[in-house]
Amino acid sequence: MSSQPQLRLQFIVFALVAASFTNIYITQPVLPVLQNEFAADAVTVSYSVAAVILGIALANMPFGALVVALAGLLCAITDNLGLLIGARFVQGLFIPALTTCLAAFLARTLPSERLSVVMGSYVSATVIGGLGGRLLGGWIHPPLHWRYAFVFAAVWILIAGLIALLALPREERHHDQQKQQPSYWEIIKRWDPLRIYLVSCGSFFVFSSVFNYLPFRLEAPPSSLATEWITLLYLTYLMGVFIGPMAGKLSNRFGSAISMISGTLVLAFSMSLTLLSSIIAMVLALLGVCAGFFALHAAAVGTLNQRVTSGQGRANALYVLLYYLGGWIGITVCGLIYEQAGWNGAVMVCLGMLLIPLMIGITEQRCPNR
């Protein structure tokens, strides 16, 4: 493929992934605002993020951008919190149709020596989308209202989806190859991909919990930050743009196990820093949380697609299932802990969860192919 068509393809894929992920985290920086507007508790309004994550976890189905956009517009006009959460769940059901197949496509078409680096770039595209949604929700709210963020995201994903539909190349399918695809059960019962799924589940449990309850932590004393300043701290999410590709290169050079172990240790240390009341410490902590998490995520998804030689589509669908299921469980469990024991209690739960990727990283180092 020549450079110009390749750049065009990368741009289309990047725009579609970014537009999809923009819809996921729109309400995250304005959760305290939703709490006051709908007269609900912190756990209930957090379901406006958890519901879309649960929907993504449950659905890897061939639907389109139209439903995501329409559900987003419904979120923009409803005055019922239950309906907003339900519409967010519907968005989550349809987002995998726009993103999950891309990872499988890359795995089928790229040589193995480039796969880790390219998967790291794919992770970077999810970073831009995730950050864009947070900035959109948080920065639109002060001058206008958070509802306008949903309208903008709906228009964006409609445009990106239409461009992708018209311009992406069609992949030839071979029936003889499809007959050889392993089943979901055959993939997940193997210990080597299963432990990668557990890494993704445990790490996103921690990451989603930190960023979901961050607004409540920073709005309360002693920080007492306004929504726009809380949103500004989400810029630390940009760390993932650099860490994703870098983690892929480090995995190629030193092995994925080293990336997993080092990512877990950085993530754990950074989680501990969030216990301090200093804003400077919080900024450094969030930078470290992003660096550690995206190192884990890029190493895990790269390792999975190198290890699974057939059935990459199903293998990546299972990865997405466990990844987002971990995020939904994390938001739900840490929300209950946050209500009872505050931020310190939620951090302790997250530190305990990080034992999973740490132990699996050590296992990978000792016996990577067993």
UniProtKB/TrEMBL annotation:
<keyword id="KW-0472">Membrane</keyword>
<dbReference type="InterPro" id="IPR011701">
    <property type="entry name" value="MFS"/>
</dbReference>
<dbReference type="GO" id="GO:0005886">
    <property type="term" value="C:plasma membrane"/>
</dbReference>
<comment type="similarity">
    <text>Belongs to the major facilitator superfamily.</text>
</comment>
<feature type="transmembrane region" description="Helical">
    <location>
        <begin position="226"/>
        <end position="247"/>
    </location>
</feature>
<feature type="transmembrane region" description="Helical">
    <location>
        <begin position="7"/>
        <end position="26"/>
    </location>
</feature>
<feature type="transmembrane region" description="Helical">
    <location>
        <begin position="254"/>
        <end position="273"/>
    </location>
</feature>
<feature type="transmembrane region" description="Helical">
    <location>
        <begin position="344"/>
        <end position="362"/>
    </location>
</feature>
<feature type="transmembrane region" description="Helical">
    <location>
        <begin position="196"/>
        <end position="214"/>
    </location>
</feature>
<feature type="transmembrane region" description="Helical">
    <location>
        <begin position="316"/>
        <end position="338"/>
    </location>
</feature>
<feature type="transmembrane region" description="Helical">
    <location>
        <begin position="146"/>
        <end position="168"/>
    </location>
</feature>
<feature type="domain" description="Major facilitator superfamily (MFS) profile">
    <location>
        <begin position="1"/>
        <end position="364"/>
    </location>
</feature>
<feature type="transmembrane region" description="Helical">
    <location>
        <begin position="93"/>
        <end position="110"/>
    </location>
</feature>
<dbReference type="GO" id="GO:0022857">
    <property type="term" value="F:transmembrane transporter activity"/>
</dbReference>
<keyword id="KW-0812">Transmembrane</keyword>
<dbReference type="Pfam" id="PF07690">
    <property type="entry name" value="MFS_1"/>
</dbReference>
<keyword id="KW-0813">Transport</keyword>
<keyword id="KW-1003">Cell membrane</keyword>
<dbReference type="InterPro" id="IPR020846">
    <property type="entry name" value="MFS_dom"/>
</dbReference>
<feature type="transmembrane region" description="Helical">
    <location>
        <begin position="279"/>
        <end position="304"/>
    </location>
</feature>
<keyword id="KW-1133">Transmembrane helix</keyword>
<dbReference type="InterPro" id="IPR036259">
    <property type="entry name" value="MFS_trans_sf"/>
</dbReference>
<protein>
    <submittedName>
        <fullName>MFS transporter</fullName>
    </submittedName>
</protein>
